[in-house]
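sorry for the late reply, my laptop died twice this morning and i had to redo everyting from scratch. anyway the thing you sent over, i finally got around to it. pasting the sequence first so we're on the same page, its 372 residues, then the predicted structure underneath. double check i copied it right bc i was rushing
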Amino acid sequence: MQRSETGPFIPARERPSPRARRVARSTSGQHRREDEVAFRRVIRSRLLRWYDTHRRDLPWRHRHTDGYAQLLAEFMLQQTQVITVIGYYERFIQRFPTIDDLAAADLDEVLALWAGLGYYRRARNLHAAARTIVSEYGSRVPVRVEQLITLPGIGRSTAGAIASVAFGVRAPVLDGNVARVVTRLLAVEERATTAVVRSRLWAAAESLLPENRCGDFNQALMELGAVVCTPRNPGCALCPLCSHCGAVSEGLTERIPVTRRRAVVRTMPLVVAAVACGSTVLLVQGPDAGLWAGLWALPSEPVADRESLGAARDRLAVRLGACCQLNGTPDAAISRLLTHRQVTFHVFRGQASGKPRMTELLGVPCRWVGPR
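ok and here's the structure:
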């Protein structure tokens, strides 16, 4: 008796010869490759057929071969739901119909039009990318992924979306929606944020791409993740890939994708000065980096740990100078949740004596702004 490579004891005369084992492995490998090819063919066919019937009517899809329209949409869609983006996209494209118009605009105007969409660094990067495209690419959005990812604010997934949708490039996308679809399709039970799993998902997303209609296929994956294969309570009964989904067959749809625990929400109290002078109020511009980088806002001071609102208000009053008098108690408190921060603005009204000729407040640009 001899021990086989797989563990159990098998009489030597019953063991397959080395040549037979090589043939068996070769045949098994061939079958596996054939199965994978057939699997990919079915996924492409079913998903594109579903997309042709069920895709949403979105404004940037009316200009699907326009690189600028796709670039603008992809910037706005980063970490933002489609329903929120539609109105902003339409206002942007009306105000800046070409990439030259956007590049020529003042950053303050771009930020003002972006107001309310959040993640303002995207607006800064979009403006910077537009200027780079105008100056270095003759106002034509680059076609290749390798060129697109050199632009500010564009990573591999955004570049793949722009290149595939606008130019038909065979480039994969792996945003949150696509990652969720692929992890469920392949029943991946590890966290999708680890480098090893991320690499596997990129390879899978690329292998699924058809030779033609790559842009439609990428949009179909994103669409499926957004409206059917949702994070909670996915609509598996409506999914065109349900019969080929590993998570469905193994009963893992509610456990996949595996997510990390939510970050703790930190409280962030601020004292804010609403200083009026006639019909105008005092605004200051934020620094180039930080939570509200470059934005104009009411003067504010963070409240330190174990510090009273009064002490923080006094520090802010010193910054403003003797010409601005603040009330001793807050007139309002407004709270907003920003990703992992709970920001509370404690607003102190104030009045300026005369109209101080201020262009800087302790080195920070400032201005008096009235109703428009």
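The CA atoms of residues 177 and 225 lie 4 Å apart.
thats about all i looked at so far, will dig more tmrw
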